[in-house]
Amino acid sequence: MNHTEVLTRYTANFVDELNVNGITDVVISPGSRSTPLALTMAEHKGIKEWIIIDERSAAFFALGIAKQTKRPVALVCTSGTAAANYFPAIVEAHYSRVPLVVLTADRPHELRDVGAPQAIEQIKLYGDYVKWFQEMAIPEATPEMLRFSRSKAARSVYMAQEGNSGPVHVNFPFREPLSPDFSLENMWGEASEQSYMPAFDGKKRLDSEQLIQLIEKLKSKQKGIIVCGPQTDADFAEAVTSLASHWGLPILADPLSQVRSGQHHKDNVIEGYDAILRNEAVREKMKPDFIIRFGAMPVSKPYLFYVKEHMAVLQFVVENHTGYREPVGNTTEFIFADSVMLCKDLIETEPVLNFEKDWLDEWKRMNLISKKHLLGGSEENITEGEAVRALMEVIPDSSGLYVGNSMAVRDVDTFFMTTPKNISILANRGANGIDGMVSSGLGAASSGEPMTLLLGDLSFFHDMNGLLAAKHYNLNITILIVNNNGGGIFSFLPQAKDGRHFEALFGTPADVDFKHAVMMYGGEYAHAATEDELKEVLDKSYQHKGLSVVEVKTDRTANADWHRKKWKQIENEILNSGD
User: What is the CATH class of 376-566?
Assistant: First the structure.
């Protein structure tokens, strides 16, 4: 058996096993050393290949696909710095628990550390940011080595999804010549629908004794809150709102919790808690007896202050799998169990808990005050909060919203109110970076579901390369850029008081006319100056197939003042109208 046949069979068995184990999408960045993987992926009928030239964009594009589909996605690149460009997205995937199977091609061992071009140290390149690493053997085509190839493919997909999902890294040393031969008979090996690593991986669940112990801890309490942080389980909203209704407790629901939208019961959802908790006196008045948090820590900084100021309060954090996400450092009891089953089990567990009704009523009262001020009024020149209000009013039902970091996600937290629309909301809140946002949104749009990407001008500028995917694949997406000509979030921080260095170091105005970039990539561009105008422009963008970019321009200082005015109005009415 010659070198080409060996290379082909070894690689084809690996690729086929990926597909057997559920890989249907691969994102490929062109390169020479990765030729065996790239061509074989493209040849496989069960795998859809996406060609993204820029490796950083490619990795975030794959991240977006995986977040949207909730399935692992493969990545393929050549050796050298190409692999290093995956790093930001791998860090995000690690912290946001997204399954990626990263396949890097490498020089063979004899060409490493000898001055050969495009050869860097790729062994465990991503350190602890991947769940599992495998250095593959030089290709062989013996029955034993083909089984080895398949077993590592199966394990890579399993490890990416096992427990808390995340990225895995498989490194392939390839010798030249690199082109496979697809005319070989039985190239893919023995056809099988059975994985090389079949596994029955059940969900965690508390037993009856543990449920009773939990209930006993809560029996003497009167004032509790349920907090829902970022998570993506489609069944969770119905389960947690049913529990809140059964117990008579408020739900502080982060916008990424998927609890604010949909057809489920939402009477106990307090979406205005970020505005409510900005006042220290209110935070003290609303001290709870216990907190049950599902999922990651919410976006809201006032909620962070609220938890810090009540460190002695009994707190439970529910995670589907073993993990630690408690950034405040409070004493916390962890419940490692499937969130949906836990809610259902608690509803069915006796005795029935009776919490203070006035507690829930007070949260609802404050929430109505918050919503009245946040949704009221209209400015002559659009503010960033108004931009989010307009977006949430006209965004289509059964669509997705991918939200950028910094001010974008915070304004969604503040101005996205409960709705019967089914809107799935995604964001890169693992590492909270502004990089790769365009590519992530486009990756999510590749599923075919209507998608809106909301982000700031710096996030857009940082990943304009990502727009090539929209042009190349005619992806259907509306991008709303809130352009305050710089880092608007810093206007809310103490750094804004530094008159000498603020603009250069924090404001960082780019002064870029984005219309030209949008036109370069074949997109439609529109600008809106008022909230009503934005609704009209956005509505038209949803009728357009392909890339649509809508831009609103705001003033950073005026925007910060407008937000503070809203918060002050809410604070004053809450404090002056209470009992």
Answer: alpha beta
